[in-house]
């Protein structure tokens, strides 16, 4: 379908995005932004509530009429209170694959398919490396539990045909108030007990939450956006030690106390600890080329906003 046909369809449809996992950290911010831009948002959740549908309702009644579908559902991987055992790994996988599958199937079956289908996955797709630099066309997705997860997750989203525009945003660590990884870091850093994790040399691909939801809204609204976009800041070539220093500076606290890798491995398990102890240098080449303009391209300003 050509762009002109999309444009004419946009004006006929109500602007109602459907948002899986929209009750979480990113989903709440995205809902606010979409509402501010005049969209009516319908959430898909495990828990019924007014203005929401459940995953079971989606499976039985199909996709409500909407112009876009977005999936953010997924069990929190870095929950330090959960042991990294087989049962938890299954939950991490199935919460992402099954919800994505359900939405993709519902889109395929919908009599009026949405114009856009957007999935958030992660930069864990790219192999951690002290030297390599990855853009959206770089290979990956086949070397450990998390990269395999991203491959299966993105495959679960794929639709046959092209009546719906498909976008995948591979996100870095999302920095924002009231959630995500930084939620766990703020207290020790405020107490002056923060510092680099492990060696601190690993890359720390980050994005401010306002930019991640901005990229998602851009993906929904701009009819030329298609395929994979890296959801990281353009200056996301920061190492973990530089990140720790910048967070300490934003808080006006020293940040010299390293968190030893043995402690991280004991809390998270060796396989999951890789997410914190290793990192990848990721550049948002296609995101920038798509015309998205960042609100927080630099780490210092991004962190100042988060800790304000
Ligand atoms: N935050 C980050 O730094 C980051 C980075 C890269 C990628 N991502 C990805 O972005 C997505 C959203 O992240 P987030 O930080 O907003 O997560 P979040 O705050 O934990 O929210 C995720 C939402 O997913 C739903 N969910 C949780 N466990 C589920 C399960 N077992 N089955 C079905 N649904 C479940 C929940 O909705 P209900 O309770 O309403 O069902 C929850 O509100 C996740 O897939 C995550 O992997 C996040």
TrEMBL record:
CDD domains cross-referenced by the UniProt entry: SDR_a8 (cd05242)
NAD-dependent epimerase/dehydratase domain segment(s): 21-222
Record-annotated DUF1731 domain positions: 260-305
Stored InterPro entries: DUF1731, Epimerase_deHydtase, NAD(P)-bd_dom_sf, SDR39U1
Pfam families xrefs: DUF1731 (PF08338), Epimerase (PF01370)
Protein name (Swiss-Prot/TrEMBL): Short chain dehydrogenase/reductase family 39U member 1
Organism of this sequence: Equus caballus
The organism's taxonomic lineage, starting at the top: Eukaryota, Metazoa, Chordata, Craniata, Vertebrata
